[in-house]
Design brief:
184 residues; alpha+beta; five-stranded antiparallel β-sheet; 4 helices; 32% helix
Length: 184
């Protein structure tokens, strides 16, 4: 079964983008390559169970087993040695990626308390978008009663496009709730 957001992308968004940016070929339209969800768990250096809980939460949220990330260098002030587990990440592609984005845009983001939209300034030079979330409890898959501590996460949406404007337009048409009009 084709994810709802992928079907919307192919049937509605690509023709809209082709018309707006006057592409000669539909393959010129910007597209999402991958979504990386990262949880940095600094407290894991003292207690590995915190990292294990974060990995379970990330598995439930994304539907894919996360990879453990380790520190690259020692930082004495944070009591971190080189090679110590300090986080986890998941790289989503294909159908899982579109299903995750659909849940993020339509379910999770509206559940944030006092939500007024996301910034339109978080695009990099190549057009990829980064989003920081303060807690994992905004996802309905997480059981709040069993949650021991809140954990933030970064969502990086890797977009293949020619400019920030094209990436912004793609995410806007996918339903991302931006605060201001226009990208910089």
């Amino acid at each position: 079964m084709v994810p709802r957001l992928l079907q919307k992308y192919k049937e509605e968004i690509v023709p809209e983008l082709s018309k707006k940016f006057s592409y000669k070929n539909v393959l010129q339209a910007p597209r999402i390559v991958k979504v990386v969800v990262n949880m940095g768990v600094g407290a894991a250096s003292q207690d590995i169970k915190i990292l294990e809980q974060a990995m379970q939460d990330l598995t439930v949220i994304t539907g894919q087993k996360p990879a453990m990330t380790r520190s690259r260098k020692a930082i004495a002030n944070f009591k971190i040695r080189k090679g110590l587990p300090i986080g986890c990440k998941v790289t989503l592609r294909g159908a899982r990626m579109y299903e995750f984005l659909d849940r993020l845009v339509n379910v999770a983001l509206p559940r944030i308390r006092d939500f007024r939209g996301i910034s339109d300034r978080a695009f990099d030079e190549k057009g990829s978008y980064s989003l920081g979330l303060k807690e994992q409890a905004i996802f309905p898959e997480i059981n709040i009663d069993k949650m021991t501590r809140t954990q933030g996460m970064d969502v990086i949406i890797n977009i293949r496009s020619n400019s920030k404007e094209e990436s912004f337009e793609l995410l806007k048409l996918l339903g991302m709730p931006f605060t201001k009009k226009g990208a910089e």
